[in-house]
Design brief:
The protein is of the alpha/beta class and about 400 residues long. Helices cover about 30% and strands about 25% of the residues. It folds into two domains: about 10-80 and about 335-389, Roll (Urease, subunit C, domain 1); about 80-325, TIM Barrel (Alpha-Beta Barrel).
């Protein structure tokens, strides 16, 4: 994995500079979805220095009077989508080619705030990304929460989860481990050393922190045998895993419930079997938290297909917003429009879970980074759109 520390500081500095001394912004819409279970009609949010400061009737009259007003009229305003662990197509930069065990490497050090793939996220209503080490390594390293932006991306949380992998991609015939058994033995030995405090070095320290609960442990596992191996490790060492891929999740559903596992599902596709399309519904009925992964431009379709196959709309919208934020313990900053969260939201001309609803605009930290400004006719006071401030 390459290291690019200057990117981090430049991007963070740009984000901080953009938020300082900015005028308050009030954004209005016919429906404002603060969270999947909290919707306001004829609602509004007040944005201050990139964060949601007040919502709806809580907005002080004086602050409303002094703010720039953007009125999107008959639209829905929803929290921006959160894309769970993803390399944004940079597997080579987010993996160590010669070593399989590198849990102390930090994805943030390979973060490029001007990467084209990052800049394209808002076009899919994605406002935050869990940048993650590649699943090519059995222990890839530490993920980060990053955001796209009008003038380059920024780092919201420098260290989030620790990424492990039991998939075929992590088993390289040119280096050990070459088998699933070998990968499990490598992780079991490292976890045992971390738990017993017998090992030193930064790699063991990362696993010790994870076992202590300060980081979520994410394991890429697709097939039944991989899922069983991941769940066995989680049970042996006492952690609640986040499983990414989980193609055969239905075959281990009772254990997922018992071990309080969470899932990041591969995106649903129209050509999939009905049993695959109904997996989100089965998970929701069993109480297993899940969200949708894969490409940013596939997230909305995955949620729509899940709804068409029995999933309720609130859970589907949560799987795009609040659930991945909670899954990676980032709910204080992304995934909803509660006061104190980042002002990250998308505007749709109708319910976002109807594919006929046009995507109008996306805002990150209160700045329009994609789409159209509000129509002048719909703006009751002279105002400048957020992206043109």
């Amino acid at each position: 994995m390459h290291r690019f520390p200057p990117f981090v500081f430049v991007a963070t500095g740009l984000a901080l500079a953009a938020g300082l001394h900015a005028q308050d912004l009030v954004v209005k819409a016919a429906k404002v979805v603060l969270a999947p279970d909290s919707v306001q009609s004829d609602g509004a949010i007040l944005v201050r220095q990139g964060k949601v400061a007040f919502v709806g009737a809580e907005i002080p009259a004086e602050a409303r009077a002094k703010a720039t007003v953007v009125d999107y009229g008959d639209t829905w305003l929803v929290p921006g989508f959160v894309l769970p662990p993803n390399t944004l197509g940079r597997d080579r930069d987010l993996a160590e080619a010669s070593l399989a065990f590198t849990p102390d490497l930090r994805a943030v050090e390979a973060f490029d705030p001007w990467q084209d793939e990052l800049a394209r996220l808002p076009a899919s209503a994605v406002t935050a990304l869990l940048l993650s080490p590649s699943p090519r390594n059995v222990a890839g390293g530490i993920g980060a929460l990053v955001k796209p932006g009008k003038d380059g991306g920024s780092v919201a949380t420098a260290e989030t989860h620790v990424a492990l992998s039991l998939t075929q991609a992590a088993r390289n015939p040119e280096r050990p481990p070459t088998s699933l058994m070998g990968a499990c033995d490598l992780l079991r030995t490292a976890f045992a050393a971390a738990k017993q405090g017998t090992g030193g070095g930064p790699d063991v320290a990362v696993l010790r922190q994870a076992l202590g609960g300060s980081r979520r442990i994410v394991i890429h596992a697709d097939l039944l045998v991989e899922l069983l191996a991941a769940l066995d490790l989680a049970r042996e060492f006492g952690f609640e895993p986040v499983l990414v891929g989980a193609r055969d999740a239905e075959k281990v559903l009772p254990r997922l419930v018992q071990q309080k596992a969470s899932l990041v599902l591969d995106p649903l596709q129209p050509a999939m079997r009905v049993t695959q399309l109904r997996l989100p519904t089965r998970l929701a009925e069993a109480g297993v938290p899940f969200c949708f992964g894969g490409r940013a431009d596939q997230l909305r379709l995955a949620a729509v297909l899940a709804v068409r196959n029995g999933l309720d709309r609130k859970t589907a919208l949560a799987a795009l917003t609040r659930t991945p934020a909670q899954m990676f313990e980032q709910q204080a900053s992304v995934g909803s429009l509660r006061a104190g969260c980042g002002a990250d939201f998308a505007v749709f001309r109708g319910d976002p879970l109807d594919l006929g609803s046009a995507h109008v605009a996306t805002f990150v930290d209160g700045v329009r980074v994609f789409g159209d400004a509000a129509s002048p006719a719909a703006t009751p006071t002279p105002a400048t759109a957020a992206g043109d401030r």
